[in-house]
Amino acid sequence: MPECALAHTWRAESGTVTPSVLMDWRVTVGAQLGRPALVLVCVAAGLAVFLSAVSLWRETRRRRAITILVLRLFAVGSCLLVALQPSVELGQVSLLPNHVAVLVDASRSMSVAPPDHGPSRAQRAAQIVAEAAPRFSEWERAGHRVEVYSFGEALATATAESLRAAPQGEATRMGEALSELRGRLAGRDVGGVILISDGIDTGRIARGPLDGETRRALEGLAAPVHTVFVGERELRDLSVAAVLTDDFAFVRTPIKLEALLRHTGYGDRQVEVTLAREGRLLDAKAVLLRGGSGQEKVSFDYTPMEPGNFVFEVKTPVLAGEALESNNSQVFTMKVIRDRVRVLHVCGRPSWDERFLRSILRLNPNVDLVSFFILRTDNDELPLGANEMSLIPFPYQEIFDEQLRSFDLLIFHNFNYKPYWVEPYLPGVRDYIQSGGALAMIGGDLSFASGQYGESALRDVLPVDLTGIPRRGAARVFDRQLQAAFDLCGTQPPGDIAQPGPEGQ
User: Fold this and answer.
1) 13: buried, middle or exposed (CB in 10 Å: 19+, 13-18, 0-12)?
2) Domains parsed from the chain with CATH numbers
3) Which residue from 43, 175, 308, 318 could staple onto 205, CB 3.0 to 4.6 Å apart?
4) Which helix (H) or strand (E) segment is 356 a member of?
5) Contact 398, 406 (CB under 8 A)
6) Count of alpha carbons within 13 Å of 205, Cβ hemisphere only?
7) Three-state SS for 246?
8) pLDDT tens column, 128-159
9) How many beta carbons lie within 10 A of that of residue 414, not counting itself?
10) Stretch 289-313: mean pLDDT, rounded?
């Protein structure tokens, strides 16, 4: 049924009607006429009144003319009432609460203060909410519901007191917060969303244009989203934005730790970036901050020497005038595990005991064996030229300099270092043992005193004292039994571990 545009609404003040119920009345037309017919009837009535007024224009008796015009208006009005059949409808309108959501960024970047040391972003956001409290109260008296949330990694309800606390969020995920808000307000009428942030999103919105999930969240809210920016247009800051590494590493396997630095306002300045493990400095690199703002990548080479869970920290110095000091370091954990025990076996000549030991180690699935044994020496007579033989030269530099620290155990099996240019690398072998590597020596006519190890750089790390024992002759051989004395606490020198026992023992 067509309706007239005349309407009026007021709030019921009666005690029998709740404040959320409104009384409404309106004038309606009861005639079963279409809109064109209604327009034609109203135009005809208006034309009749106009012609009647024109016909009475020349009437000299004004009182008589006015009386006739009033009677004709009454007649036209009566015809309209009969034709249109107007009526007044009264009704009650129940107002459903209209929700307004206020989302405040609570990530750590909101702790940034402007260069003039004014209020931080978080403090300015809390001030905005506090100043809007009277407006929010007015909205609630009008039937709306105002809900305040904070968001970082996730959405959480907030109060004026919680907004004044220091922000602790490790991320700013606006898209995810809007999706969670849509789920919380599902089935409710949302009047609008107010988003207060510095705009530094680290969630899915930061990866490019609005994704499908965020678009569906905005469409599901079916309400305008108003943004309030509390960042600064200019600031100075240096931060460790990310550490790029795996969660685990293998013992004695070199790895590369990479850190991403972001800087603003410190162009063409060099800073020192440090890597520490459990508070102990491992490495330091100088990095040049190029341009007014941007990001730089720094790499650290590190070889874990023992298994376990370790805490690492990449840190930059706090520069003068920095907006935020808490982002100058990144702490991360890494699990170091043992893949397989790597064994380097170096043998002076082929023998049955060498064959047995190499077979045992090779068949063990937990051992990664690299074995070298000498098949000829420079003093051997060769029927062919050296370039016509398939034997490879002994790679002394590669195994004792470049790859030594990748092994867990080094075995010298009846091996004399003198003829094979190994002596310059023995100090490195000693350092390898003192830093946690393992050494096993198997004797023979080329080892221990016969191999002149008592005169080498390894004399201080050997489990026996070779002082005074000659290379040749009967004096270098004990024909007596030995009594082993094990020093579990390591309080005695290595030479006291094995000593000749009394005669007959």
Assistant:
1) exposed
2) 3-94 (no CATH), 98-229 (3.40.50.410), 257-337 (2.60.40.10), 341-500 (3.40.50)
3) 175
4) helix 352-363
5) no
6) 17
7) coil
8) 999 999 999 988 888 789 999 999 989 999 98
9) 23
10) 90
